[in-house]
């Protein structure tokens, strides 16, 4: 089992820091209290897939940061707490690593910490060709599965 204290965290303002998808997996595997929170939309979960943490004997928490139409989710913190996410470490994941920064900052400001952002998210930002296949959880080969139908 890896030592989560040895994960090299990139500094960040307002939350614990940025970690690579591989470091996120190490933290989740090495710390029984670590939780993965996927903040993408229901549509993204269905069409793109979701992280598969079954081998770690833990399930991700799914809570949209923004809802359909780009409207912020006013129940985000309430949903985290209802799912038992009250302290950390929490690893936030979105599609490219941007919404998860905001989620990590809000969680930290609300006392749910330490909160980390997964760099490049689930698929990474689009490359010059517009395709999201350069970086991210899914691209680096971490376990994932098709989302709910």
UniProtKB/TrEMBL annotation:
Task: Cite the SUPFAM superfamilies for this sequence.
Answer: Rhodanese/Cell cycle control phosphatase (SSF52821)
| Limits of the Rhodanese domain | 30-134
Q: Which Pfam families match?
A: Rhodanese
InterPro entries referenced in this protein's UniProt entry, alphabetically: Rhodanese-like_dom, Rhodanese-like_dom_sf, STR4-like
Instruction: Give the protein name, as stated in the record.
Output: Rhodanese-like domain-containing protein
The record, for PANTHER family, names: RHODANESE-LIKE DOMAIN-CONTAINING PROTEIN 4, CHLOROPLASTIC
């Amino acid at each position: 089992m890896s030592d989560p204290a040895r994960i090299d965290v990139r500094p960040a303002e307002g939350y614990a820091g940025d970690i690579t998808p591989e470091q996120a997996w190490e933290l989740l595997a090495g710390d029984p209290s670590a939780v993965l929170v996927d903040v993408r939309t229901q549509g993204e979960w269905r069409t793109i897939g979701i992280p598969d943490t079954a081998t770690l004997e833990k399930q991700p928490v799914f809570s949209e940061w923004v809802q359909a139409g780009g409207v912020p989710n006013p129940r985000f913190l309430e949903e985290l707490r209802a799912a038992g996410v009250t302290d950390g470490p929490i690893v936030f994941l979105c599609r490219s690593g941007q919404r998860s920064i905001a989620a990590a900052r809000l969680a930290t400001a609300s006392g749910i910490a330490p909160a980390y952002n997964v760099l490049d998210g689930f698929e990474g930002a689009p490359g010059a060709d517009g395709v999201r296949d350069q970086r991210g959880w899914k691209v680096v080969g971490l376990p994932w599965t098709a989302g709910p139908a």
